[in-house]
Design brief:
This protein is α+β, with helices and mostly antiparallel strands. The protein has four helices and six strands; from the N terminus they run ααββααββββ.
Length: 175
């Protein structure tokens, strides 16, 4: 006996509908699990980014602290370790403008040729912007205390760049 077309159709259509329904349920389940994964991972990614930013800010702060310590030992070369040793380094102050690490070092040595002229350095009111693309801006105030003269003070703006894994000053604008 040959089945009637309606009987064949009755047997095939529900099977196709069930398969489509199962596929749809699987796709929905997969979409839900991906959404859940994103909802879990996004805050985790933000947390890791914040921790990374704070670590980078501490690294930058340690460069500045090392500069202060070197200066206060009378070690201008040690102070210069915080700067990019490149001819691309830019330094500007109210009294001079120089390009290059060596020119900047020479300028410091000329202006501060004795330990007494160097005095004791302090940085204050430091603001370290969140690093972006391996660069960040730091602003603050400096104060130099000397025995024989009144303190000198001013503001600075530094551009730090991460070069070969190390944060270095690539531009210094000091007034």
């Amino acid at each position: 006996m040959i089945p009637a077309e309606s009987n064949l159709e009755d047997r095939i259509v529900p099977t196709l509908t069930q398969e489509k329904s199962a596929t749809f349920r699987s796709a929905r389940k997969l979409a839900r699990s991906r959404t859940l994964a994103l909802l879990v991972m996004m805050p985790l990614g933000a947390l890791l980014a914040c921790q990374s930013t704070e670590l980078e800010k501490r690294e930058i702060r340690s460069v500045l602290d090392a500069q202060v310590a070197a200066w206060n030992r009378g070690d201008i070369e040690g102070f210069m370790q915080g700067y990019w040793n490149s001819e691309q380094l830019e330094f500007r102050s109210s009294s001079r403008k120089s390009k290059g690490w060596q020119a900047t070092l020479d300028g410091y040595k000329e202006k501060y040729d004795t330990r007494e002229k160097m005095g004791t350095l302090e940085f204050r009111d430091l603001k370290i912007s969140p690093p972006k693309r391996n660069e960040t801006q730091v602003t603050g105030e400096f104060q130099l205390f000397r025995k024989e003269s009144p303190p000198s003070a001013g503001r600075f703006e530094l551009l730090f760049r991460k070069i070969k894994g190390q944060w270095l000053i690539v531009r210094d604008q000091t007034n």
